């Protein structure tokens, strides 16, 4: 027979064991929940990246703002670096999406052949990114940040140059200004010489990308390497030479997204696809120049555009 004291000890001991077991079960449950949340790259927070130049910062901020407006929590990981860095971050799950260009995906990531057909290029990158990386290209914007050659109105009229064929015919008398890599890129100077005849320039002036237009407008060069959405094109009323032999591939921009994110948050695709049609060449040129020419911050420029376009309701100052 148990004494009263013995029964009390037995009850207390069993009560302690029960509390200990309950504690273990609760800790296990909380740990499982925490691990599940930490291991899911498409969890509650959407991580948005970008490359390290003005246009990318503006686009990355746009993506972030419209997703926040739709109720998502967003973490900005903008200004990551060049294409290899951004692509690696997306593949590894460090980010969930970033803005990419169809031509860059085709040539720099997939190492495919140059193609000037926008629909064919988009189909190639969309299919091969899904097959190789399990990444999804959303709807591309109308804007095309393709490489180009630009001249001032005065010089274009003076020399009668409106196409790249015209430029090639007079190349031996012309100074071309642009970034150093244009001299060696497949779709740069070597590509031009292959497509438009083995012409030789008077000289190539290699400068930092931010100094191209100053050199052009100051008269240090006759022609500048341009990109279709550079703000200086409209600000300085430049002539973009027609790529009459269609060398340069299209560089339409689109969000590239991890499939895991869309599996868990399918409405992300709807939100970003609704934004894409707003981003035209003219819009992007204007937004870029507000940063590069007028000194505005990319975040403020992106927000004000979304307010003025009716996407956000008066959340920007001014």
Give your account of this protein's structure.
The chain has 318 residues and is of the alpha/beta class. The protein folds into three domains: 1-33; 45-144 and 253-308, Periplasmic binding protein-like II (D-Maltodextrin-Binding Protein, domain 2, 3-Layer(aba) Sandwich); 147-240, Osmoprotection protein (prox), domain 2 (D-Maltodextrin-Binding Protein, domain 2), CATH 3.40.190.120. The protein is 49% helix and 14% strand. The chain contains 14 helices and ten strands. The chain has helices at 4-39, 54-69, 83-92, 102-109, 118-133, 153-159, 164-169, 189-195, 212-217, 231-235, 259-264, 267-275, 281-292, 298-308; strands at 45-49, 73-77, 97-101, 135-137, 147-151, 175-178, 203-206, 223-227, 239-240, 253-258. It has a five-stranded mixed sheet with strand order 7-6-8-5-9. Helix 8 links the parallel strand 6 (175-178) and strand 7 (203-206). Helix 4 packs across helix 5.
Give the SSE layout:
Elements: H1 4-39, E1 45-49, H2 54-69, E2 73-77, H3 83-92, E3 97-101, H4 102-109, H5 118-133, E4 135-137, E5 147-151, H6 153-159, H7 164-169, E6 175-178, H8 189-195, E7 203-206, H9 212-217, E8 223-227, H10 231-235, E9 239-240, E10 253-258, H11 259-264, H12 267-275, H13 281-292, H14 298-308
Helix pairs in contact: 2-14, 4-5, 13-14
